[in-house]
Write a structure and sequence with these properties.
elongated, about 140 residues, alpha+beta, OB fold (Dihydrolipoamide Acetyltransferase, E2P)
C-alpha cells in the first residue's frame, strides 16, 4: 500500500518531542504529527496523550519534495454526529491506560481551568478592560 495525501493509515509512535510525535508508517517511512494535530483540545503536554510504542491512526496531510510526511491524529478520527463539545469518546483523552480516578481527576482539572478562563474573560469585559483611576 502506498502513502497518499488524505489517506488514513496506522502507525506506531517512535519518538515524542515538545513540538510533536514521530510516527513509524509502513515501508520504514516516518512522519510527524505536530502537537496542534494531536487532539481537538489544547495540548499543553503531549505526554498526556501519547507515549512511545502507542499504535495510532493518522491522516496523511502532506508529503513534501524532500519526502517529509505531515500527519494528523485529530483529523483521522471520525467526526461526532453532534456539535456538542461535552460529548467525549474514550480516545479523546487517551484514557485506555488510565484508572477511573485518574480520568476523573484529569476531567476536574481541565474543567476548573476552563471555568477560571471564562471567569477571567467575563471579569475583564465587565470592568471595561481597564481599572478606574483613584482620586487623591
Amino acid at each position: 500500500m502506498s502513502l497518499e495525501v488524505g489517506k488514513i493509515v496506522e502507525g506506531i509512535v517512535t519518538g515524542i518531542t515538545n513540538f510533536g510525535a514521530f510516527i513509524q508508517l509502513e515501508a520504514g517511512k516516518t512522519g510527524l504529527v505536530h502537537i496542534s494535530e494531536v487532539s481537538d483540545n489544547y495540548v499543553k503536554d503531549i505526554h498526556e496523550y501519547l507515549k512511545q510504542k502507542d499504535k495510532v491512526k493518522v491522516k496523511i496531510l502532506s508529503i513534501d519534495g524532500e519526502g517529509k510526511i505531515s500527519l494528523s491524529i485529530k483529523q483521522a478520527k471520525s467526526k461526532k454526529s453532534t456539535n456538542n463539545p461535552y460529548q467525549w469518546t474514550e480516545n479523546d483523552f487517551h484514557q485506555k491506560n488510565l484508572s477511573f480516578e485518574d480520568q476523573l481527576s484529569k476531567f476536574l482539572k481541565e474543567s476548573e481551568e476552563r471555568q477560571q478562563s471564562l471567569k477571567k474573560n467575563f471579569d475583564s469585559k465587565r470592568s471595561g478592560g481597564y481599572k478606574k483611576a483613584s482620586l487623591k
